[in-house]
Design a protein that fits this description.
The protein is an alpha+beta fold. The chain contains three helices and eleven strands, in the order E-H-E-E-E-E-H-E-H-E-E-E-E-E. It folds into two domains: 120 residues, NusG, N-terminal domain (Alpha-Beta Plaits); 48 residues, SH3 type barrels, CATH 2.30.30.30.
Length: 185
């Protein structure tokens, strides 16, 4: 490996703290002048929408909990600096003992991961998690039937709509509503 060649590596970290560890590594790079040895640092995520209490909540969901991807030339001080960042457990593929070197990712593996990230940004609006189940009793919070309770009979994830039966004047009346027009009781 020549002095400027960077390869992708996977760092095993404490799960749930990937973004904080990424920030620590970035600070370590700045503080130690390792900009030439360390390139991109990624925590692969996808954007999802969850519906809670009738409101859309946008969240980033980590694809690989407990792992951070890093593009680096790990000769010299860079390897030592990354290993000593709080929350970093080890490099993936690294044997036991500090003398073994981490194994870089294959080009096809990293291109799959980078492709997943790009695809998730394109499909962002299509990733609404359905927090409802058939047979569940819900309350209508929007539209002309606001305030009525009903039972879910069908869920159409593609159209993001629910078919429900609402009791109006003692009769079951079918309705088709968006996910955002109802809430759980």
């Amino acid at each position: 490996m020549n002095n400027l060649e960077k390869k992708w590596y996977v760092i095993k970290t404490i799960s749930g703290r990937e973004n904080k560890i990424k920030l620590y590594i970035e600070n370590e790079v700045k503080n130690n002048g390792l900009e030439k040895e360390i390139g991109d640092i990624l925590v692969p995520t996808e954007k999802i929408i969850q519906i809670k209490n009738g409101k859309k909540i946008y969240k980033d969901k980590v694809y690989y909990p407990g792992y951070v991807m890093i593009e680096a030339n790990l000769e010299g001080e860079a390897l030592y600096a990354i290993r000593n960042v709080p929350g970093v457990i080890t490099f993936l593929g690294e044997g036991k003992g500090s003398k073994s070197n981490p194994v870089p990712m294959r080009k096809n593996e990293i291109s799959k991961i980078l492709g997943k990230i790009e695809n998730s940004l394109e499909e962002f609006e299509n990733n609404i998690e359905v927090p409802f189940v058939i047979g569940e009793t819900i309350k209508v919070i929007d539209g002309p039937f606001s305030g009525f309770n009903g039972t879910i009979e069908k869920i159409n994830e593609e159209k993001r709509k629910l078919e429900l039966a609402v009791l109006i004047f003692g009769r079951k009346t079918p309705l088709e509503l968006n996910f955002t027009q109802i809430e759980k009781i």
